[in-house]
Design goal:
single chain, 383 residues, Alpha-Beta Plaits, four-stranded antiparallel beta sheet, two-stranded antiparallel ribbon, 13% strand, globular
Length: 383
């Protein structure tokens, strides 16, 4: 079986690259490397010893990812003619004429836009979402959805003695299932109103938890334009524990920031000199929701006397992260929701994954017409 997934001999085997060796006609002669390791990681009725490895499982998973990615990169290295690298390389040579830096000497390997995570892929995705905003209008809702390690779908599947960090595959699968349910609630059941267009990206925190950023553009009849409409979707207050005990518990558990600032100047969100919270907490009290100067509202945060204990400190409404009560009750996790109307929010969603590298991209005309490309080269040199 190992011969089937040998990365040195099957450069084009993975279907995410070209898949030319993985399939012949309608029948599969081999399995791709990714498919093979998906099989190895499966949860089975019989015990799968790989899933008992703890941190060794995490190290093994990282090694497998690197192996698969190297296989894809090697495919592109050995199939440069297929992606017209010679033509592209000649243009780059024109731009870099007279280059004397030793680190730029040698043949450049060109990655196509189909390579996930490459600079051309990142740029294409960013331009796609900017075109989406151009066609459908400014965004209305920015939503962050974070995995909760205490979801029963995760805790009930852990083996004796295991923690969630010992099963990254289980965590990712549970998050994926919840994410699909969230999309159903937003796009089909219209929990926040009818969505005209949307885009989202999935990232992983440094501690390994997956989370997703959603940007929703509502249909014209469901646009959010006034503070009264904001209050129907977004809340930034601690619920009354006597009237809404379960919602109160979830807000305290998931939607309280910090504390930071004067209560804890060593919080990770404290930056700069003098130190200040990069998320601008604690916020100010407001009797009514008003539109802010930075395209984000200042939500209603009344001085109603409701406080909760967070560590050694009493926390009031100034520390509440804006949330939607319906979604919070449905998914029981950190779910920040903001009303937005600025193009800057689009860039924020994509800046971590799709920002790409600081280099000039040159357009390759699909019909082989060099004039367009040469004009771009001249404009680049003149700049």
């Amino acid at each position: 079986m190992d011969d089937i997934v040998n990365g040195e001999d099957n450069f084009g085997e993975d279907e995410d690259a070209e898949g030319s060796n993985a399939r012949t006609g309608n029948s599969k002669k081999t399995v791709s490397m990714r498919e093979y390791y998906c099989y190895k990681f499966q949860i089975r009725p019989t015990e799968n010893v790989i899933l008992l490895g703890g941190r060794l499982l995490q190290q093994f998973s990282v090694n497998i990812y690197i192996k698969i990615e190297m296989s894809r990169l090697q495919f592109y290295e050995h199939n440069q003619d297929t992606i017209r690298a010679d033509f592209y390389q000649g243009i780059v040579d024109c731009v870099n004429a007279g280059e004397v830096n030793s680190n730029r000497v040698g043949r450049r390997i060109v990655l196509p836009a189909s390579f996930i995570g490459g600079s051309r892929d990142m740029r294409r995705r960013f331009l796609d979402v900017m075109s989406l905003v151009q066609d459908d209008g400014k965004p209305d809702i920015f939503l962050t959805f974070t995995c909760n390690l205490n979801w029963p779908e995760i805790t009930e599947k852990l083996l004796p003695g295991q923690t969630a960090q010992d099963r990254p595959g289980l965590v990712a699968r549970a998050f994926r299932a919840k994410l699909e349910d969230l999309k159903k609630q937003l796009l089909k059941k219209h929990v926040l109103g009818e969505v005209g267009a949307y885009v989202y990206v999935i990232e992983f925190q440094k501690r390994g938890l997956p989370y997703a950023h959603f940007l929703l553009i509502m249909k014209p009849t469901h646009k959010i334009t006034s503070p009264d409409q904001y209050d129907k979707l977004v809340c930034a207050e601690i619920p009354d524990p006597s009237r809404y005990p379960e919602l109160h518990e979830r807000v305290v558990q998931h939607m309280i920031h910090g504390p930071c600032g004067p209560l804890n100047d060593k919080s990770p969100c404290m930056q700069g000199e003098p130190k200040a919270c990069r998320f601008h907490y604690p916020r100010q009290f407001n009797e009514h929701t008003v539109q802010g100067d930075d395209s984000y509202p200042l939500y209603r945060r009344r001085r109603n006397g409701i406080k909760v204990k967070k560590g050694k400190h009493d926390i009031d409404n100034r520390w509440v992260v804006p949330y939607n009560p319906t979604l919070l009750m449905m998914f029981n996790c950190h779910m920040n929701i903001e009303i937005c109307s600025s193009i800057k929010s689009v860039k924020y969603v994509f800046k971590y994954i799709y920002k790409g590298h600081d280099k000039q991209s040159v357009h390759i005309d699909p019909d082989g017409e060099e004039e367009v490309v040469i004009n771009e080269i001249k404009r680049f040199q003149d700049a």
